[in-house]
Amino acid sequence: MQNTLLHKVYSTELFEENGHRAIEMLTQHLADKLQEKTGKAIHWNDPETELEFWKDFLEHGKPEELFKSITERTTYVHHPHYIGHQVSPAAPITALTGMISSLLNNGMAVYEMGMSPSAIERVVTNVLCEKIGWNADARGFLTSGGTLANLTALLTARKAILKEDVWNAGTSSALGIMVSEEAHYCVDRAARIMGLGEKGIIKIPCTESYQMDTSVLEEKYQEAKVKGITIFAIVGSAPSTATGMFDNLEAIGSFAEQKGLWFHVDGAHGGAGVFSKKYKYTLKGIEKADSVVIDGHKMMMLPTITTALLLKNGMYANATFSQKADYLLTDSDHEDWYNSGKRTFECTKTMMSIHWYTMLKFYGEEVFEAYVTQLYDMGAALGQIIEKHPSFALAVTPMSNIVCFRYTHANLSQNQLNELNAKVRQQLLEDGEFYIVQTKLRGWHYLRVTVMNPFTTKVHFQNLLDKIVLLAQNLVSSETTIC
């Protein structure tokens, strides 16, 4: 009986049958969303309702309905009304590379468990390093997401800059990093994981435009020094996740060079701008960085979770996690770039390099330029529409495809407006026609749009704003008026 079941699991006939059905279903899903045959960007359910559905489905649902049920009860990232989180509508061809990765299942910790994807990863990271403006000494590797990549970069910085061997000997010294107050939370989290504590996270205030105020770097550095904190790295945001604003990388790079600090750029979202002739200026100074993170699943149309950590000096690529694992990793007297287990947190990782390589092979670097440029253009267009609209206020003029704005009303206080905007966003979520998110900036509650779909137009923006105005007016005039 057991052998019969296992034969069924690995049946090539069933795989072909289910595969054809899945491809047909996903093709229909894509057409339905891209052509807006479905009016909604999300079918919202509260967590408990969704949990009960899947509990019941496991017991009573039909297997042939599983894939369709998953696609229906989800967020439609390929719909032009999906303008929420920074997750791209993956290029359809990467569904095929994802299938290849899942079926071949090459773990990639050591070369013989990932020959093709390891070599392909070297090609892909070399392309990224070259676009940043680094020379042939640069190296990179792929890892699972920006959070892990930023942590790895800071571990590399600590090992490269400090004289003491913290990795092997530990430390009781007070160490710190400098980072914008608007930086992504994962940088703060990484510092705490490394044991720096709150005092070791030197938050640099931002200007009115939510960019790191580089004029106070010296002051903050000296304050930390007086407290006995040894700063070893400074992080530039490219851009800040909340606001989409880019720090002055050139000024930060010069400060890092002056002080002998590691300069890390969190370009998880905006690092792909190196491919855009029109918007590469947002990354001016990135070539000064010692390390850069770029998420392929944000602005390069790749599936989650696909991230590159790039290092200006390739000698640090294998140094961060130097340790012995004789059964798996052996010492080498030459550059051991092909054994990824020496360079990343992961021992096993997916064959994510083939997503990136396939996009380059089928469409060329031009596809990344086209995507970034289109989305940034539309971010600017939405900003201009909001700026002229009497019912809305921008947080800041957009530098990217991230746009923060709020509904305004002359007769409501800040607290009332905050509550109103939060309720509008919740109603949008439950309605499902549009999917946007929210953020809090300097005490104000903002609605936040990230234009991720290249087919989102000004008409979509106008329809969204009209809907927000209607929802807000209904809330204000209803019996449950914002109090």
UniProtKB/TrEMBL annotation:
The keyword Transferase applies. Pfam families: Pyridoxal_deC. Its cofactor is pyridoxal 5'-phosphate. One of its GO terms (biological process) is carboxylic acid metabolic process. Keywords: Aminotransferase, Decarboxylase, Lyase, Pyridoxal phosphate, Transferase. The modification N6-(pyridoxal phosphate)lysine is found at residue 298. InterPro entries: PyrdxlP-dep_de-COase (IPR002129), PyrdxlP-dep_Trfase (IPR015424), PyrdxlP-dep_Trfase_major (IPR015421). GO terms for cellular component: cytoplasm. It comes from the Bacteria. GO terms for molecular function: carboxy-lyase activity; pyridoxal phosphate binding; transaminase activity. Transmembrane segments: none annotated. Belongs to the group II decarboxylase family. This is Aminotransferase class V-fold PLP-dependent enzyme. It comes from Maribacter flavus. The lineage of its organism: Bacteria, Pseudomonadati, Bacteroidota, Flavobacteriia, Flavobacteriales.
